[in-house]
Amino acid sequence: MTLPVHIISLASATHRRAYQTAQAQRLGFEPQWSDAVSLHDISDAFFHQHAFQWQRALKRTEVACFMSHLQLWQNIAQSDGPAVVLEDDVVLGGNWLADVQLLATHPQADFICLETWGEKTLGNADTLGHLTLRRLVLNSAGAAAYVLWPSGARHLLARYERCGVALADAFINQTQGWRIWQLVPANVVQMSVAPDFGLPPMDHSESMIAREQHASAIAPSLAVRWHMKGRRLLGELDKAWRQLSTVLICKRTHVPFMNHEHR
């Protein structure tokens, strides 16, 4: 069965779609375009219903980004096998297609993070052919490129039913009770940090969320603000506990990027 590669992209983001189309042709796969939820798809009522469910008030673009991932999680949860999910601002390195096809054969994975950005806390290692994977304990990114199994999608959907909307990467990283791995070295970087990994600066690399000029939603009451602060405190305590409880068996490190010359 062909491994689906979904690319989340706004229909209006023609420059990014052109870049990803050329990249896919060069690497030898046919992308499955997933139209991102746009600001115009988010009504005021829907936005204010979901903007205060995380640790701080969200922007409209952040809610739209989460819903773009959510619609793919719902599809993958009903599928027969894993799929790759990419955002449209990624650079793919290494022998990318062959590597992700190999990763899709992993017998004990719900989610594999393909990208690198910031520090990650990594646990024990596993190998799959020539590839190395490390247990992913704490992460600072991860929504731009990942392999997701139906079992993992169901974990994410169950958490959504309990907790609601959040920043997509934070939501993924705070999910527990599943088998989550990091590819080391990673074979994806986002355009915005490409120069940090020896790649030239790229056009159209600015995040759509960072580009949004409107501030986050204003909480309608003191009770809502305190609920968000409480979630923030619990989230920080959870991160601290995971860090302390694994300090002797895990390592906090930067994951290198597997560049185009890697074979």
List keywords for this structure.
263 residues; 9-stranded mixed beta sheet; 8 helices; single chain; two-stranded antiparallel sheet; alpha/beta; 21% strand; Spore Coat Polysaccharide Biosynthesis Protein SpsA, Chain A
What does this molecule look like?
The chain has 263 residues and is α/β, with parallel strands linked by helices. It has one domain: Spore Coat Polysaccharide Biosynthesis Protein SpsA, Chain A, CATH 3.90.550. The chain has helices at 14-27, 44-50, 60-77, 96-103, 150-163, 168-174, 208-211, 222-245, and strands spanning 5-9, 32-35, 83-87, 90-92, 111-113, 119-128, 131-138, 145-148, 180-184, 188-190, 251-254. The strands form two sheets. A nine-stranded mixed beta sheet has the order 2-1-3-8-5-9-7-6-11, sandwiched between helices. The longest helix is centred in the last third of the chain and has 24 residues, at 222-245. The radius of gyration is 18 Å and the shape is globular. The mean pLDDT is 90.
